[in-house]
């Protein structure tokens, strides 16, 4: 398992620790680590560093190096302010008490609870382990805040609304376009779902996390990990950026207003740092209203200084966004009908809210509280928590998958980072009351590390990937279940093989996404080792290979979003 | 003006800087300083102090002494976290740039903009000035947070509800009781308004800031500067504490639920530190819901880490509290009908919200944004900002004074700390639309430093004190206007003389408060020098002395609250 020792692989997609942990039968909450890990834009932000008189000394050069490592490797789980998130707090009161030797052992060898073995995995040298042990005994430096003035300084209207096309100027079938993140290139590719050809490559922020559509389907919004938002006009002859803004230092989520009468009017983004969200003009990205998320945790009601904004969903029932705040475990229902005197309803759910999606009726938002091993069901019509369901270890649904179960009726599915199951939750309190908000079934998958499950109203299949699984046979494959015969278990499709990319042990297949018709499923395949990639298209009915899209411009394709399905929340 | 050099006088009530500034015709925004100054409970909280490698050295002993001075003298204007409030920010990036010598001059000599001359006034020695200049170049230590667990550890139900009297067990006319703060004693005195005798002295937190009544008039709530709340049952044979809780480290406000159906059900308190508010069970003070106020400032939308909760008012129109947040300048309308999934409407007003009161209809909350020289009118029925009125320098209304102006109809009055005027604002958009939300008249007072104005629906008088005025003739008197003949100017009543306390140049008279009948006005008089005090009662119609209440137990009486008027918001 030491093939990654050379560090040739981007951290985010090669979870050695999980590999080892899974192989040893250990708890794989460190999947969270690797899932979170990867270069953080905060690593390069100059921060003021005090000297803690009680801590071992550190030179300025050592501070800077350690701070960079901290934000790149550790902040994802331990927090920017080191107050703890899914990982434990690392504030000086605790770390000084532990002492350098204890900390070095922990950092070097990891722990069964999920701390990666940064030292013995080869990720950090012994000197670096010692450096980090000393660094975390110092006061955490605080990154700068980022308010309206900072946002406005980065806001650009590249093509003002009045200068944009009055009608669609191209012949593309916009609804079947796929927006594909080219992670390491800081770009997205727009791929024509009909012809399977690349329409354009567009410059964006770094490692675009998600794509979202405006309600009309004309505008595409993407947000990079660096909190840069790009707004793309699909009506242009060659679709390209019409506006951009940077809304913070690190982010994951963007969304647009979907309530009737507000189509294309507003956009919203949430940031990891600073912990806040901003509502913008949907036509220009002009920042209008910023709201901080620092507040009290669900249950214990202790103040958390760094509650990151995870997913955001737009309600179809009210002029509201639902902003999910990770460390406080609260879903904030934000009413955008009055942005000046703004009303917010705060729903306590469960800590570590992360991703989620609507149920098939679109009335309920199913959100994973990942390290709490729970899923919350938020009733968007009544503005209340309808249910809180215990599921498996570290649910990771993406937006989840809706289908009609032969026995249980409408269900929503999620895979798990921490075990090999797929949980099915009943979502129909009207006609299937006895199953609503319960885990009605748990499907067995090939092994843990599932990132995305997917289905489609027109499909009889439930798909799941497992890119964080240590076994290459699994991480390079996709499994598919027949919804009408779940007891038969899953079929495995060798997507990695079908991609035609050489078998170098480093290929990963991720994120099933349907086309508009619901008869094709698209997968991203890439190998970080030999830097080859492909998009594999499978026929949803026959389960046979339909097409392989290869293009040297497709650098590290990760998430892809079909315009129609994203616009209408079809999944 | 050097009589205070000996430091024998409590800082809060002897504003030498204002005296000198006023005498020199300077801006008296330093009235805010003295108004805020005084012992802070935070001064004694042990805090972790880092060493700033760029700053001049400081020993641990020096740190502790400087930190204490900082919280006692400086935090009121510069903030606990030194990010600035009414005073400028004092964070290391700024103070290091200024350097020790510059800072020493500033601290020693003050500035025309309102910084007191701590050195030349004799408040701080040269060594202490040097100490403080060095201290503020270090990183501000952060006081601890204070969450549910901390509150519960201090929460005591001294007499559980079931053990309390089922009917009133004494013969006092409860509605005419006065709750009087005995500031330095950490007590309140309950005084029988009919007999003018002390009913009981009750132990409370330090320097009780205000008293508030439950909707039924049975329970009295007081909050000390140290954030300790005491709940007193007036039905007991000898009224005394039945519950207590400490809700933070420093506070100013407490209130109870007044909407129909919620009488006596809930209480709320807001804190300066931590910046948050807590809603409690109105029967036992059990803490139920804590909400943080850290957020973006009105207008510039920059993050403020320490927005203190100033006044809180209870709406009669909806099940809502209005929580006024100082540094962000926002009034939060908090709906208490659902404490679990809680809805808040955030009204941007103007920075430096502080005190205020209802208009005569009780529909509008008039709140002073003091250092912005403005008053906001919050419509409690429609949940919106009805008006924002420019007034004089640093309005300080207390709860203000409502009366019917012969020309302008219903008006609300506020005095000012920074000039000698009383502003009258029209409050009747229904029948006097042209005057609503405008300053219709500005009365001339005897000199600045007015803390409280007062009137009563049954009275033809408007009263004002001026305890922060440097001229003892003024600070020891009270002025009164005839509402029907405002042009005639004010009459002066020598309350200080009437109190019978020796003339030592250190007497101050403060806070006119009516009795239930509206025919008596009560004043607190005290001399910090010879530690004598009295309560002077004046006949509202004849303007003649009616009674003087003296009792050795009346130690530093400051604010007093008539039960009936406080219960029903009569002012």
From TrEMBL, chains A, B:
Keywords: Electron transport, Heme, Iron, Metal-binding, Oxidoreductase, Periplasm, Signal, Transport. Residues 61-140 form the Cytochrome c domain. The keyword Amino-acid biosynthesis does not apply. Coiled coil: none annotated. InterPro entries: Cyt_c-like_dom, Cyt_c-like_dom_sf, Cyt_cd1_C_sf, Haem_d1_sf. Its EC number is 1.7.2.1, 1.7.99.1. Residues 1-23 form the signal peptide. Its cofactor is heme; heme c. It is an enzyme of class 1 (oxidoreductase). It catalyses: nitric oxide + Fe(III)-[cytochrome c] + H2O = Fe(II)-[cytochrome c] + nitrite + 2 H(+); A + NH4(+) + H2O = hydroxylamine + AH2 + H(+). PROSITE patterns: CYTC (PS51007). The keyword Electron transport applies. CDD domains: 8prop_hemeD1_NirS. It comes from the Bacteria. GO terms for cellular component: periplasmic space. One of its GO terms (molecular function) is hydroxylamine reductase activity. It is found in: Periplasm. Homodimer. This is Nitrite reductase. It comes from Zoogloea ramigera.
């Amino acid at each position: 398992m030491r093939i990654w020792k050379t560090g040739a692989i981007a951290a985010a997609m090669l979870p050695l620790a999980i590999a080892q942990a899974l192989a040893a039968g250990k708890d794989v909450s460190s999947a969270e680590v690797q899932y979170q890990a990867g270069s953080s834009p905060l690593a390069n932000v100059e921060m003021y560093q005090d000297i803690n008189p009680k801590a071992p000394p550190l030179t300025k050069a050592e501070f800077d190096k350690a701070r960079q490592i901290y934000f790149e490797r550790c902040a994802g789980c331990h927090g920017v302010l080191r107050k703890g998130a899914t990982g434990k707090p690392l504030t000086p009161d605790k770390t000084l008490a532990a002492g350098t030797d204890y900390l070095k052992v922990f950092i070097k060898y990891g722990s069964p609870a999920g701390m990666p073995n940064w030292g013995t995995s080869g990720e950090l040298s012994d000197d670096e382990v010692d450096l980090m042990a000393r660094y975390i005994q110092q006061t955490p430096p605080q990154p700068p805040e980022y308010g309206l003035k900072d946002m406005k300084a980065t806001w650009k209207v590249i093509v003002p609304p009045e200068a944009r096309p009055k009608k669609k100027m191209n012949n593309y079938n916009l609804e079947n376009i796929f927006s594909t993140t080219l992670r390491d290139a800081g770009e997205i590719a727009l791929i024509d779902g009909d012809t399977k050809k690349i329409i354009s490559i567009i410059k964006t922020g770094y490692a675009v996390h998600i794509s979202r559509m405006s309600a009309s389907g004309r505008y595409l919004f993407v947000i990079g990990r660096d909190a840069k938002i790009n707004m793309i006009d699909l009506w242009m002859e060659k679709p390209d950026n019409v506006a951009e803004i940077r809304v913070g230092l690190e982010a994951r989520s963007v969304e647009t207003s979907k309530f009737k009468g507000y189509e294309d009017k507003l956009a919203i983004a949430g940031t990891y740092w600073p912990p806040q969200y901003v509502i913008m003009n949907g036509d220009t990205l002009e920042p209008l209203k910023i709201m901080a998320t620092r507040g009290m945790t669900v249950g214990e009601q202790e103040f958390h200084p760094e509650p990151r904004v995870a997913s955001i969903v737009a309600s179809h029932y009210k002029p509201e966004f639902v902003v999910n705040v990770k460390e406080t475990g609260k879903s904030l229902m934000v009413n955008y009908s009055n942005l000046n005197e703004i009303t917010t309803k705060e729903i306590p759910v469960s800590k570590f809210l992360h991703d989620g999606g609507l149920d098939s009726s679109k009335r309920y938002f199913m959100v994973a509280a990942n390290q709490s091993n729970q899923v919350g069901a938020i009733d968007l019509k009544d503005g209340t928590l309808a249910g809180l369901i215990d599921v498996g270890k570290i649910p990771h649904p993406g937006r989840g998958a809706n289908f009609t179960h032969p026995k249980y009726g409408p269900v929503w599915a999620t895979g798990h980072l921490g075990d090999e199951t797929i949980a099915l939750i009943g979502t129909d309190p009207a006609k299937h009351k006895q199953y609503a908000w319960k885990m009605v079934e748990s499907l067995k998958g090939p092994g843990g590390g599932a990132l995305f499950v997917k289905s489609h109203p027109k499909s009889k299949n439930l798909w799941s990937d497992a890119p964080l699984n240590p076994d290459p046979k699994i991480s390079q494959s996709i499994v598919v279940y027949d919804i009408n015969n779940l007891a038969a278990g899953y079929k495995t499709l060798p997507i990695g093989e079908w991609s035609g990319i050489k078998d170098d042990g480093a290929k990963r297949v991720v994120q099933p996404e349907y086309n508009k018709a619901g008869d094709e499923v698209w997968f991203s395949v890439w190998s970080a080792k030999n830097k080859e990639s492909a998009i594999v298209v499978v026929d949803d009915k026959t389960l046979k290979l339909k097409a392989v899209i290869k293009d040297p411009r497709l650098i590290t394709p990760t998430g892809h979003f079909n315009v129609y399905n994203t616009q209408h929340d079809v999944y």
